[in-house]
Known about the structure:
Elements: E1 2-5, E2 18-20, H1 23-30, E3 36-38, H2 41-72, E4 77-81, E5 88-93, H3 95-104, E6 114-116, E7 120-122, E8 124-131, E9 137-146, H4 154-172
Parallel strand pairs: 4-9
Antiparallel strand pairs: 1-2, 1-3, 5-7, 6-8, 8-9
Amino acid sequence: MExxxxxxxxxxxxxxxxxxVKNGYGRNFLIPTGKAVIASPAAKKMLAEDNRQRAHKxxxxxxxxxxxxxxxxxxxxxxxxxxxxxxxxFGSVGSVQIAEALAAKGFEVDRKKLVVxxxxxxxxxxKAILRLHKEVSVEIPFAVVSEDGSYxxxxxxxxxxxxxxxxxxxxxx
Length: 173
């Protein structure tokens, strides 16, 4: 018996797949529970049309995600927070703070799509991954620094020092 699945079934297939099953399994379980429908010619036409329309929608979603990824490429953030004298943050920096920092730069993102690999509980440089689509993700580097500027990450200071030294060396040469 040929049927069209209406939901994912672990050992059988995925939603909108056209599969062959035994007659009893299809008539007694899949169709009565709403997990499948009989693959009549009319149902096959509807499935083909749905798949064609869905392909356009999925392509548009993918293109939008890629456009947003190119806009976010090269963006780095500096997040200021309250820090103890040893460089430990009071609390932690998570996806909410990163989403707010991105919003301040003009990029509206869903905080649920942000993934921070490491636990951010100290001043330093970290990376967050923004998953825009199952095929598109962007890595966003961010630095956590003290609000009053008394304590900054060593790597951030080195980067600033290198930038300041380069023009001075060029001027002497």
